[in-house]
Design brief:
By secondary structure, the chain is an alpha/beta fold. It folds into two domains: 123 residues, Response regulator (Rossmann fold, 3-Layer(aba) Sandwich), CATH 3.40.50.2300; 96 residues, Arc Repressor Mutant, subunit A (Orthogonal Bundle). Helix content is 39%, strand content 23%. It contains eight helices and 14 strands. The strands form four sheets. A five-stranded parallel β-sheet has the order 2-1-3-6-7, sandwiched between helices. A four-stranded antiparallel β-sheet has the order 8-9-10-11, with no helix packed on it. Strands 12-14-13 form a three-stranded antiparallel β-sheet. Helix 3 packs parallel to helix 4 and helix 6 crosses helix 7. The longest helix is centred in the middle third of the chain and has 16 residues. The radius of gyration is 19 Å and the shape is elongated. The protein starts with a strand and ends in a 7-residue tail after the last strand. The chain binds calcium ion. Calcium ion (CA) binds next to strand 4.
Length: 235
């Protein structure tokens, strides 16, 4: 399993550390911590780092988490945001959701419940129309099984398996994924599909997405597996 990066924005150091530990416990998530709204903004501004979801405290020392959420949405950031709220009166909840948050959880909460909410939001997001990822020169929209070459305004259609392969490699965040992991993720545990089938799909995918399939820039071969270079092939 490749941990998915989650940003925790919370000024309560003890709570933040507990959350980070719980998220990382099963290797499912990797937490990055921010103490203030400003700290969070700075981390989110780094184009080389991606966060799959944000846990966002309402009461931050330098601002209101809901305002930060609204500002992130204005900047076009669409990942799931779950508000951590101390004030669970209805108006506070509604304000949080109005600001573009996907869910909220009132303190004190059980870590297991929060994890369940994070998983649920990621499931929804991963399958939503909103999920758009930048892969090299393309905008990758898994829900439409499509890559848009923005510079040429050209659409590339992908098969279901090609979409699944690309999505999983993207989630790996530039790390190599072993062939067996990809086989299980894309075809399932009980499938009798062999690495040869996977290699055939990778070959076809490269024909579609690599500007020059003789000179790989995006879908790299690594020892035992493959790696997506999401910032490759961009001139
Ligand atoms: Ca707080």
């Amino acid at each position: 399993m490749i941990p998915r990066p989650i940003l925790i924005v919370e000024d309560d150091a003890a709570l933040r550390a507990t959350l980070a530990e719980q998220l990382a416990l099963d290797g499912e998530f990797a937490a990055v911590e921010a103490e203030t709204a400003q700290d969070a903004q700075a981390k989110l501004a780094d184009a080389d780092v991606r966060y799959d979801a944000i846990l966002l405290d309402v009461g931050l020392p330098d601002g209101d988490g809901r305002d930060l959420c609204a500002s992130l949405r204005k900047q076009g950031k669409r990942m799931p945001v779950i508000m951590l709220t101390g004030a669970d009166t209805e108006s506070d909840v509604i304000r949080g959701l109005d600001a573009g948050a996907n869910d909220y959880i009132s303190k004190p909460f059980r870590a297991q419940e929060l994890l369940a909410r994070v998983r649920a939001q990621l499931r929804v997001f991963d399958n939503s129309e909103d999920a758009v990822f930048t892969v090299g020169p393309y905008l990758f929209r898994p829900s439409a099984k499509q890559l848009l070459d923005t510079a040429r305004n050209r659409k590339i259609r992908l098969t279901e398996k090609e979409t699944a392969i690309l999505k999983f490699l993207y989630r790996a965040g530039g790390r190599a994924v072993p062939r067996n992991t990809l086989l299980v993720e894309v075809w399932g545990y009980n499938s009798s599909v062999t690495t040869h089938t996977l290699e055939t799909h990778i070959y076809r995918l490269r024909q579609k997405i690599e500007p020059d399939p003789q000179n790989l820039k995006l879908l790299m071969t690594e020892t035992g597996g493959y790696r997506l270079n999401p910032r490759g092939a961009v001139d």
